[in-house]
Specification:
heterodimer; A: mainly alpha; 2 domains; two-stranded antiparallel ribbon; 31% helix; B: alpha+beta; 5 helices; 41% strand; Cytochrome c peroxidase (chain A); oxidoreductase (chain A)
Chain lengths: 347, 277
């Protein structure tokens, strides 16, 4: 395994006792380990290298409803660990006052290996992206300044911020940094599939799963590429647009007509746990997703050429092949990740 | 040895400076190691007229605009001497907002090395490098920008120019005289980098000395945004309902980025201690 360790010269490391002789916990840099079968991270981790205390602070924030206007909606409300940090069972996630959003909450995992966030790529910075859900009127409907005022009143936060950052401040910048550190460390790479490709114990795939893998490599892996299962690009996979939403996808951000109906290719890690599927959560099962690729693809503006290579649009698959692909996709479930106490905050 | 020579040179320069002060004020050489302040004043206008919020202006596209908001970010200031040597203002402090609504028109630079400057360089907006370093690097500026309506929160970036108001179209140009809202939010996004830099000659040398602050008076022409080298017609950018025009993405942002390279000119420079208008 490749290993990158960032050493931080955090001043607080130097002193283990403060003026009152009280014991102060030491902040440690955390190892950011790149799984052997992963590509290099896209984000420059040295901008915001995770430390023990920064990570713990980020985790606490991720689970804290005070980041929303009415104190009820935390990041974890829509990104639940048991379903790989998605909003289980909701096609559209709902936020404060039970208002509904327009998109389905994607998994939060392996974020440092991705360059663009949200289905339309509204952000390219792991540190800045939390600004979006925090301000969204149908998600958390808050602002950074007001959150910082709330956190400053809580002695537990005041202590954690002072341990995690050299300038010791409870500030919106440090808050976003801590959330970024938590998300940087959320790496999912220990599914049965990973063990299989890394030749590790427990890494066996059945004949059906292996057939599914072969079918996946021929038909799906150009878009759902590498062991991250995304090529980090925006593409139109031929979903008929929902007339009630008319979600333009990537065009919303760029304004270019050639981006219409293109959405970020999602990673398929833990996909068996993340139903419903697609940006608007229109499909309730993997079977429906495969039915769509086999016979539901529509020729809308900018349909990806990869889905126009056969006599009929999409990817021809019979039921036996669909089942094999689904069996393979289920090997991407990483039980360790979804039950790891490191990513769960207990009060 | 070297440093001692430098010190002597410095002393010499200083004594020369002091000696010459009384006799010939304009010809004084700057004292080594000393510094002063520089002030830039941004005078907003529209094609030669003063910009006044609420006033109407007709452009060559046959559109009459009333501005209600005109705010922009200027950044990354560099002062350039005759020999081409540059002084780059510290990056973390080099982001400023000019806001017609709140009457914020000046950029104040501190601790600029004493010298005679012939050109200035600055950016319109926020460069990608700083953006990608995350919010922390931008902390105090983010808060300022948020307070000035210069942040995007549905995505995570800065508005470089925020220009809003209402407009009507001359029927001869294919429009109608209904008054509609317009909104121009210039900026970069994850697809296009629309930050641009301009280099401007100073008509008079800006003399920076300890206790002597040149005031560089710039004119900004809001007209070039839509009516510059490449024209953008608001009535071709109406929303689906036809009730307002909004320019926030796409090709238009690249056009505006290039048009605004001609938005600024230096009108004059005042030299002398603490000169204000």
């Amino acid at each position: 395994m490749k290993k990158i360790v960032y050493f931080l010269s955090i001043l607080s490391v130097l002193s283990c006792q403060d003026d009152n002789g009280e014991y102060i916990e030491i902040d440690q840099p955390l190892d950011f380990i790149i799984p052997a079968n992963f590509p290099e991270p896209v984000q420059d981790i040295s901008y915001n290298a995770p430390t023990q205390k920064g990570f713990e602070l980020g985790r606490k924030l991720f689970y804290d409803g005070r980041l929303s206007r009415d104190g009820t909606v935390s990041c974890s409300f829509c990104h639940e660990q048991a379903s790989a940090f998605t909003h289980h069972g909701h096609d559209f996630s709902h936020g404060v006052d039970n208002l509904e959003g327009l998109r389905n909450a994607p998994a939060v995992q392996n974020m440092a290996f991705q360059g663009e966030y949200f289905y339309d790529g509204a952000s390219s910075s792991l540190e800045m992206l939390s600004i979006v859900p925090i301000h969204n009127p149908v998600e958390m409907d808050e602002n950074l300044e007001s959150i910082v005022l709330k956190l400053k009143q809580d002695p537990v936060y005041v202590k954690l911020f002072s341990q995690a950052f050299a300038n010791k401040e409870v500030s919106s910048g440090n808050m976003l940094k801590a959330l970024g550190q938590f998300m940087t460390m959320m790496v999912s790479a220990n599914s049965r599939y990973d063990k299989y490709v890394r030749n590790e114990a427990g890494g066996t795939l059945s004949t059906q799963e292996l057939q599914g893998r072969a079918l996946f490599q021929t038909n799906c892996a150009t878009c759902h590429a590498t062991d991250l299962f995304t090529d980090n690009k925006f593409r139109n996979n031929g979903l008929p647009p929902n007339p009630n939403l008319n979600d333009l996808g990537r065009e919303t951000v760029t304004g270019f007509a050639y981006d219409r109906y293109k959405f970020k290719v999602p990673s398929l890690r833990n996909v068996a746990l993340t139903a419903p599927y697609m940006h608007d959560g229109r499909f309730g099962s993997l079977q429906s997703v495969l039915n769509f690729y086999a016979s539901g693809v529509q020729n809308t503006q900018n349909l990806d050429p990869l889905l126009q290579q056969h006599p009929t649009l999409g990817i021809p698959l019979n039921q036996q092949e669909k089942e094999a692909i689904i069996a393979f996709l289920k090997t991407l479930t990483d039980e360790e990740f979804v039950s790891n106490p490191l990513f769960y905050f207990r009060t | 040895m070297k440093s001692r020579l430098k010190n002597i040179a410095g002393l010499l320069a200083l004594s020369l400076f002091i000696n010459s002060c009384s006799s010939d004020d304009n010809g004084s050489a700057p004292a080594d190691g000393t510094s002063g302040d520089v002030e830039l004043f941004f005078d907003n206008g529209v094609a030669g007229d003063a910009l006044m919020l609420g006033n109407s202006y007709t452009n060559s596209n046959g559109e009459t605009l009333i501005f209600e908001r005109f705010t922009y970010i200027v950044s990354n200031f560099v002062l350039i001497k005759e020999d081409g040597s540059e002084f780059t203002y510290p990056k973390n402090e080099s982001y400023f907002i000019i806001n017609e609504e709140t009457g914020q028109f000046t950029v104040h630079l501190e601790n600029v090395p004493a010298g005679d400057y012939k050109k200035i360089k600055f950016g319109i907006g926020v460069d990608q490098q700083r953006y990608l370093q995350g919010e922390t690097a931008q902390q105090s500026f983010w808060d300022l920008a948020f307070a000035n309506n210069m942040t995007w929160t549905w995505s995570t970036g800065y508005r470089f120019i925020n220009c809003q108001g209402t407009f009507t179209v001359d029927p001869a140009h294919g429009g109608d005289t209904t008054s509609r809202g317009f909104m121009i939010h210039q900026g970069s996004n994850t697809a296009t980098d629309n930050y641009r830099e301009v280099v401007l000659n100073l008509p008079t040398t800006a003399r920076v000395r300890e206790g002597e602050m040149p005031n560089i008076h710039l004119k900004s022409d809001a007209n070039v945004i839509l009516d510059g080298d490449t024209k953008i017609e608001l009535h071709h950018n109406l929303n689906g309902a036809g009730t307002a025009a909004s320019i926030m993405a796409g090709e238009n942002l690249i056009t505006i980025a290039n048009n605004t390279k001609k938005m600024f000119t230096v009108d004059h420079v005042h030299n002398g201690a603490g000169t204000h208008h």
